[in-house]
Amino acid sequence: MLPSSTSLNRHVLAILDKCNDLHHLQQLQSHLISLGHGNTYFYAFKLIRFCTTRLCNLRYARFLFDKFYSPNIFLYTAIVAAYAAVPDHESAVLIYRDMIRKNRSKPNHFMFSIILKSWPEVLRSYGVELVQAQIGKSGFGGYPVVQTAILDAYSRYGDDVHLARKVFDEMSERNVVSWTAMISRYTRAGKVGNAILLFKEMPEEIRDTPFWNCIIAGCVQNGLFSEAIAFFRRMVVEEGNRPNQGTVVCTLSALGHSGMLQIGKCIHGYIYRNGLSLCLYVVNGLIDMYGKCGSFEKSRIIFDKSPETNLATWNSLINCYALHGRSHDVIRFFEDMLQHEDGLKPDVVTFVGLLNACTHGGLVSEGRHYYDMMINDYGIEPQIEHYRCLIDLLGRSGRFEEAMEVVQGMRVPPDEAVWGALLNGCKIHRRTDLAEFAVKQLLEINPDNGGYSAMLANLYGELGKWDEAQKVRKKLSEENAYKAAGCSWIEVDNQIHSFHSVDKSHARKEEIYAVLKCLADTSTMQYAS
C-alpha cells in the first residue's frame, strides 16, 4: 500500500535532512520515481532547493528543472533564485523571460522580489522600470515584499534618487530593510543630509546592526568621519546595539582618517572585552587605524600577532608606513611579502603604497624600478594613482622631461592630482614656465577653483607679467570663484575640533579668540621690550 501524502512528505523531508551528497539525493529521486512521484511539483521543488542550497550543485538542479515541460511558479522561483544567488543574472533573466513569453506560469510576489535583483544587472538603463511595469499589471504592487524589492532595486541601480524616494513614500508597510535601502541610496548619491533626516524619522525600536552599518559606512564613504564616529557612539552607548565586524571596520576607518587614536584604542579594547571575532577584516582595520594615527609600533605588533595574513593585511601595513614617509621600511615589507610562504602577489594597491613611499623618500631609481616591475613582471596596467605617484616623484627631483614623457604616454586622461603633482615639483624647482602650463591645465579641468587662478596670478607676478596677473585677479574677483580653505584639527577629550581659515563657527569661538588676542598682545610686549 502506498503511504499517505502527509506521511510521504514527512518521510521525504527526513531523508533530505540526512542527505550528504549528490549520490544520496539521486537515490531519493529514484525512490520517488518508483512511487510514481517523479513529476510531482512539490518533491521536485524540494530536490531542486536541496541541490542549490545544500549541495551547491546548480548543474543538477537545472537538469531536474528541465525535465518538466511546464514547470509551475514554485519551480521557476527556485531555479531563478539559484541563478541570481550565484550570481548568474543573465541565466536568471533568460529563464524568467522564457516563462513569461511561453505563458507557462504567472509570476508571483516572490518571483518579482527575486528577479528585481537580476534584471537590472542585465538591463541597467531601464531594468527596474520594466519589472515594475509588469508588477503593476499583475496586481502585486501593494505587497510589502515587492515594494521593498523595488525600493532596493532603485537604491542599487536607479540613477534618480527621487524615484526611490517616491517608492518609499508610497509603501504601505515599512520595515528595517526598506528604511536601510532608502538611507543607503541617499548616501550612495552623496546626499548624507537627506539620509540623516530620514534616520531621525525612523522608529528606534527597529534599528538593527545592518542598518547602523549602513549609516556609518555611508558617512565614511562621503568623508564625514566625525559623523560616522558619532553614529557608532550613539549605536553602542545610547541605544545599546551590539556592533559586528562590519561596524567595527567602518568605524576604525573613520578613526584612522580623523587621527583619533585614543578612541581607536578604546574600540580595540571593546573588541577584546566583548568577544568580537578578530577576523582578517578587523585585523586589517586595526593595522590601518593605528598606522594612519602614527602608532607604527602598534600596527606592527598586531600584524606580527595575527595568526593569518592576506594581501590586504600587507597592503594596510605598507600604505600606512608610506603615508608617514617611512620609505625604507615600506621597501623592506614589500620584499618580505614577496618572500612570504603564501606566495602573495602584489596588486594595484600594493604598488600605490610602494610608489608613494618612494616619492616621500626621494627614491627616484627605486620608484622607476618598481613602476617597471609592476608593468613588466606582474602585468598590471598603471592606474591614475600610479601615474600621479611617478610624476610627483620625478617632479620633486627636478626631472621634468621624464615627467612630461610620462604624462604624454598616459593611457587615461590626466586629472587634477596629476597636474597638481607636476605643479608641486615646479614650485620646488621654480620652473615657472612649466608651472604656468600645469595651472592652465588645472583650470581647464576645474575652472571654478579660485585657488588655481590665484596660483596663476602669482606665477605671472614671478615672471614679471604684471598685466596678465592683473587680468587674472580681476576675473577672479568678478566671478567670485571659491578657494578651498585650509583646515587643521585637534583631538581634545576624545572629540575632534576642526578649524578653517577665518573660522567663527566653533561653539567656544569667543574664548578661542580671546586667548589668541592675549597671546598676540604678550608677543607684542615681549618684542617691544
Walk me through the structure:
With 529 residues, the protein is mostly helical. The chain is 71% helix and 2% strand. The chain has a two-stranded antiparallel sheet with strand order 1-2. Helix 10 runs antiparallel to helix 11. The longest helix is centred in the last third of the chain and has 20 residues, at 509-528. The radius of gyration is 30 Å and the shape is elongated.
Number of helices: 29
Outline type = elongated
As a percent range, the share of helical residues equals over 70%
Oligomer: single chain
For the terminal residues, how far apart are their CA atoms? 116 Å
The amount of beta strand, in percent, is under 5%
Computed CA radius of gyration, to the nearest angstrom: 30 Å
The strands making up the biggest β-sheet line up spatially as 1-2
* Poorly predicted tracts of residues: none
Mean pLDDT: 87
Category from helices, strands and their pairing: mainly alpha
